[in-house]
Amino acid sequence: MAPHSESGKLEQVVSQFLLKSLHIILDSRIPSLHPRDPTCDSRVRKSDKWFNLVLGDRPAALDNLNFWHRNLMDPMIIDIILVQQGTAISTSVGNLLSGSPGRTATETVIERWLVQFESPPRGTASQPSEGSAASYKKTYKKSIIFLRSLYLQTRLLPAYRIFKQLSSSSQPFNFDIIYKVSSFSEPFSRVEEEMMKEYRFVPIEALPGRLHVSVTYRPQLSEFNLQPLTTMPPKIISDYVGSPATDPLRYFPSSYKGDRAISFPSKVMHSPTSVPFQRPHSWTSGFHKPVVNHHLAGSPTVYRTSQMSYDSPSPPMERMQNHRRPLHQRAPFYDECQLSPPFSPSVSPSTPTYLRNSESPRQTRAISETAPVTIPSPISGRSSRYISPNFSDPSKLSLPPLSPRSTRLDNSSNESPSGMRLIKKPEASRADLGSAGQKVLKDNKDDSGRFSGLLSSSDSPRVGFSRSSSKLSFQDDIDDCDFSCPFDVDDVDPPDSRISQNVDWKRNLESTSMGRKSQDAAVGVLVHMLRTAPPLRQDSSCYSSRSLRAEVENDGVATTASGFFMPRRTSDALEELRSYREMKDLLLSKSGTRVLTREPP
Amino acid sequence: MNCEVCQLKELEVEHFEIREVLRCILHTIVFHRALGLVRPKVIDLELFDITYVQCGDGELEKKIDEKIEQFISWVEKHPNKKSQVCISFYEVKNKHPSWFTNKTERLYWEQWYINLNVSQQQKVHSGKSHPSKIVVDPGENSLEERSNRRAALESSLREVLFQIIKFVNEKKDHVPPISDGVVYFPYEITIPSSSDSAFGMDMIKRMLQTGHPTMLS
């Protein structure tokens, strides 16, 4: 009995050793796995007590390890892969929309860790009972020491530097780091091998076997030309959508790169397994849904846990996408709306639901980039109302705040003018919107003003108060053309802000309201710009008639709403995007830059 | 078990670099000898592109900083000298009267020697600045020479850290068992004292105190 329990304990130690090693390595290589600073978390988890090394939350991926790594003798091979864009960054929405990004990604294994418990074959080595009583304890103690040195070693290797770059900077970069865990791997080519160095740790005694850990790594990463992206700094755009600092409940990806976990199941699903998407000895599921493996043909699953940052325009959209709800219940939304603006597929790793669409991350992002950003006025965070009409399910408040006007238009017309609202289902009924509005109202009293009228028109008795004081009359709102200018909210005004106490984005509102005054001057210019902007769709009156103007003037002039819902083309979207960019630049120049420095989660 | 000794590679440091270098090395050593529950704290050096790991123990950090300050004071009085900082880990054995002690005996089971060659620049900065503040010494050297020297030091410091990792992994048998509730083994940091001869005497004293080698695990 004793030997069994001893060997059982040894197995447990070895198994936890593997987990801990993986945890240490991933912690120091994959930025998105640990959005929070683990040192801020004073909890000591059960997993932390193993080997007396507190590492914080185990990445969800580790939960799978015990499952696939059934045989302790199997090596655990962890590939740290550098993903780089193959072509110049293109912001062409058309490219993205078409689904053919026109860019390739180069993946290079920059580190390969091998952790293996090697045990002599049974029968060849005696199992001395006298020594085995304490052998697992010795192994445990030695493992403690070893894991300390592994922890340091991972920080001394070259890959740590680029990990630091990715995780500490809010800028997007032209590269990303993903990982792959499996029990087998393709050996390096001769060329690759020559470029790599190997470091072998002293084997750890784990009687009757030994634990071997080694790493093959690229000593130089300078040849990869890793640098931040230079296009549209997301931080500027963030002004439009508010800031995570002011609206903590709004989820933003850990970096502008987005936080997408995408699993690339091996193309060869030949190994029998009882678990779908699982291959023996390889990392398959975990917390992502499998996505087509574009790049790693024949290789085991790869977890792309952070978003490539090359789709730079998308972060703001993503942010807006995530604005409303951290829950990311966008899946149905995507089903309905091809254009899926609030796209942000980038979601916290803990919410895999956003990966319903099995497109590649790039495509998803492409989609996300199609819709022009509805740049909600930073002033107003109470745009839940904007969002809700677009969703048949009001709980999916994942759209960034839209202007009240646009929302109202949506409500009334069931058409999605532009940007997020485009996504609206044509058949979205008023009733739906009404109910959505109700729900929205629940969340945001602030919106009630606008909604009150709207809802009442939708037979929603819920709406209590009437904000008839809002400068725009209800009629105006309904008639408004779809997409609103962010400055719409100007008329939604200050008094509303009092109402939005209970709203998440109230903070955002407050932070942005400061700049409102200074933006007023810019608003006029902006409005003019919008009015004279080339139509994005056939009924350009949508834009020009935007009550933005009316709102600015505070006269609540009704604008004629034409059919808002037009099929959008790529060029349309591009145009719109461009116009928004101009808007943004204008705003910035007028109001001074309110740069949001985004702390990496 | 014999007292394991590790002589670390000598580092040529300038005065203002001492603090960072010593902090890095001492904390790294202690981190590997803090076998109780530890929440590692990752620190990026300011002068070098190196990241090291601390135990995250505030008291430990304070004690180490105090010793470093003492060392820097000593260096100011003995410029341009090679010096050693020694960190030793010991076990406390009770109440064996001996020549030097009549209470407890320290059984040193491991010693690390950090060898520094401090080159003093023209201007000497006292060591009272904030621990995190790095005072750059405007020396006479050309910028290029200085950056070369800095790069060489960074590379050497990295080597020293690898040396520590190698040593801790190679020699584990002499490490005593970990007591519950104790985060790190008792340690002692020895810096050169005022006179060289006294320093030597300290070494002899410690060797005598070590006592018989024992199997510690």
Walk me through what this model shows:
The complex is a heterodimer of chains A (601) and B (217). Chain A has 601 residues and is of the alpha+beta class. Chain A has helices at 2-27, 46-49, 60-68, 93-98, 129-156, 159-168, 190-194, 234-241, 314-323, 331-336, 361-370, 384-390, 404-413, 419-422, 430-443, 448-457, 474-479, 489-499, 506-532, 541-544, 547-553, 570-591; strands at 76-85, 105-118, 175-182, 197-200, 204-206, 209-217, 262-264, 302-304. In chain A, strands 1, 2, 3, 4, 5 and 6 form a 6-stranded antiparallel sheet that branches. Chain A has a two-stranded antiparallel ribbon with strand order 7-8. Chain B has 217 residues and is of the alpha/beta class. Chain B has a single domain (4-92, 106-192), classed as Cell Cycle, Spindle Assembly Checkpoint Protein, Chain A, CATH 3.30.900. Chain B contains 4 helices and 7 strands. In chain B, the strands form 2 sheets. In chain B, strands 1, 2, 5, 6 and 7 form a 5-stranded mixed sheet that branches. In chain B, β3 and β4 form a beta hairpin. The N and C termini of chain B lie close together (9 Å). The A-B interface holds A 38-39, 44, 48-49, 52-55, 138, 141-142, 144-146, 148-149, 151-153, 155-156, 160-161, 164, 201-202, 204 and B 28, 31-32, 34-42, 44, 49-53, 56, 158, 161-162, 164-166, 168-170, 172, 175, 177-178, 217.
List the helices and strands and how they pair.
The complex is a heterodimer of chains A (601) and B (217).
Chain A: H1 2-27, H2 46-49, H3 60-68, E1 76-85, H4 93-98, E2 105-118, H5 129-156, H6 159-168, E3 175-182, H7 190-194, E4 197-200, E5 204-206, E6 209-217, H8 234-241, E7 262-264, E8 302-304, H9 314-323, H10 331-336, H11 361-370, H12 384-390, H13 404-413, H14 419-422, H15 430-443, H16 448-457, H17 474-479, H18 489-499, H19 506-532, H20 541-544, H21 547-553, H22 570-591
Antiparallel strand pairs in A: 1-2, 1-3, 2-6, 4-6, 5-6, 7-8
Helix pairs in contact in A: 1-5, 8-9, 12-13, 12-15, 13-15, 15-16, 18-21, 19-22
Chain B: E1 4-7, E2 11-14, H1 18-32, E3 41-44, E4 51-54, H2 58-77, E5 82-94, E6 104-119, H3 143-170, E7 187-190, H4 196-210
Parallel strand pairs in B: 1-6, 2-6
Antiparallel strand pairs in B: 3-4, 5-6, 5-7
Helix pairs in contact in B: 1-2, 1-3
Keywords (chain B): Autophagy
Family (chain B): Belongs to the ATG101 family.
GO cellular component, one term (chain B): Atg1/ULK1 kinase complex
